Amino acid sequence: MTHSFPIRVYYEDTDMGGIVYYANYLKYIERARSDWVRSLGIDQLAMKADDGLVFAVRRAECDYLGPARLDEELEVQTRIESVTGARLMMEQIVLRGADRLFCAHVTIVCINDAGQPARLPANIRLLLH
């Protein structure tokens, strides 16, 4: 299952060289993950209110492969690599057409209100398999 999320590069996304500032790719993939979770029917506000759980990024390994520039249309593709009882590993790629500009391998975990690790809820694990 691959989720696709469109992004347009705005002036505020660029650096003095006119290309997307490196940290903004992390914002792009975060937006794409949030949209993907929403598309699965997972209500993160209810998850926090009812279960005291939130998703958190545990690890992100990123490769910057090419520059994106002002007003370009990009696409973030999100794909699950694996799911365990406590972790969700995914690959996220930022594309401009067929060109790969950025690739990240991201590990997501759940944490409770005290900031301690928690198992992914069973209903969510079922959605991801």
Would you write up a description of this structure?
The chain is α+β, with helices and mostly antiparallel strands. The chain has one domain (2-128): Thiol Ester Dehydrase, Chain A (Roll), CATH 3.10.129. The chain is built from three helices and six strands, in the order βααβββββα. It has helices at residues 22-39, 44-51, 122-128, and strands spanning 2-8, 54-64, 73-83, 87-96, 99-111, 117-118. Strands 1, 2, 3, 4, 5 and 6 form a six-stranded antiparallel beta sheet that branches. The radius of gyration is 16 Å and the shape is elongated.
Keywords:
129 residues; alpha+beta; Thiol Ester Dehydrase, Chain A; 6-stranded antiparallel β-sheet; elongated
Count the DSSP helices.
3
Topology, number of strands: 6
Q: Give the ordered list of helices and strands.
A: EHHEEEEEH
* Total domain count: 1
> What's the N-to-C terminus distance?
10 Å
- Which spans of ≥5 residues are poorly predicted at pLDDT below 50? none
